[in-house]
Amino acid sequence: MNSKIKIQLSFMMFLEFFIWGGWFVTLGTFLGDNLKASGGEIAMAFSTQSWGAIIAPFIIGLIADRYFNAERILGVLHLLGAVLMYQMYNSVDFTGFYPYVLGYMIIYMPTLALVNSISFNQMKDPAKEFSFVRVFGTIGWIVAGLIISYVFLWDSPEARGEGMLRNTFLMVAIASAVLGLFSFTLPKTPPTAVKEEKVSVSTILGLDALKLLKDRNFLIFFLSSVLICIPLAFYYQNANPFLAEIGMDNPTGKMTIGQASEVLFMLLLPFFFKRFGFKMTIIAGMLAWAVRYFLFAYGNAGDLAFMLIIGIALHGICYDFFFVSGQIYTDSKAGEKFKSAAQGLITLATYGFGMLIGFWVAGKISDMYLISDNTHDWVNIWTFPAIFAFVVMVLFAIFFKNEVIEYKK
């Protein structure tokens, strides 16, 4: 892979995740402050990510893999996304906002697979080359948060009161249009599947890998993966509104600490995985979820602000130690024939159905502990996912038998 292509792919990844991080982090705060959405309505908006994850395999499996170049599909989807994002910018109430966010996430979620396909198609050794390109995605997410908090100050109390967070949608609409146009200059990535070849729904959704659930250990891991997405949804949906509501300065910018820690712990994961094994790595990830939410429950924006910062910084352990380790474990269990199907099944179960349930639960709990307009009992809201994650961890520790997994570079 030459330097020009490496720069192209890195810029593509940067914009891909700049776009996601540029509006999704502050979505709950915007909806609550500016569109006066309830917890249930905010949950509906966040659930569009799950619906997008459920529908995405059909777009990729039935269209992108069979009829069109991946870079062209990517370009068209992001240009459409720019239009929908601009409509979200112009929305004045939740009823008008929801159809656009639903449509947007249905066309955005497939692009996550497309940017990977385009990258892999240009690499001779993806195991060595992909991480360099992918890290620019994390950098893009971080830059988006820093711009919101420290350049434009859109998440400051005064700016939120004036409705300035709506500008995140305009910023992302511009970025989406840029990526849409830029995509047509990317290296050609032709369809991989044969048009005439029959394709089944079970193949597209990864259901061919369901036979792996006959393995008791994999079944326990699979169920744990779905259940741990319930507390995960609380973080995506409530963290930014929580930090903004209790008065933390530059909440969106501070949340980028989580992405920085994700990079750090991604580098530490191979060592931890080899030294302590798969089971202890997964347990550490789930324990980190419980600890982070207890820190959120009892920290504050004053003298206990360090508790909130530590909770944010635990994101690297929470995400990498559980989800990335889980992808490695799934890869080792699937065998050559079902590798893709198994990863698709886990993605569908977690980001699809698991988080769909999680967002719904988070919305119900948030409404349950609403004290007054835009004021919540955050101790009880965060205690629920903390206890839930701890219970999932205990059940996993009891029922999952230790298993030696070879780490695959």
Number of helices: 15
Q: Which word captures the global form? A: globular
Helix content: over 70%
Largest pleated sheet: 2 strands, antiparallel
Our measurement of the CA-to-CA distance between the termini, rounded to an integer number of angstroms, reads: 19 Å
How would you spell out the order of helices and strands? HHHHHHHHHHHHHHEEH
* Average of per-residue pLDDT values: 91
Strand order of the largest sheet: 1-2
Structural class: mainly alpha
**What is the C-alpha radius of gyration, as a whole number of Å?**
21 Å
Plain-language structure description:
The structure is a single chain. This protein is 77% helix and 1% strand. It is an all-alpha fold and 409 residues long. The chain has a two-stranded antiparallel sheet with strand order 1-2. The relative contact order is 0.14.
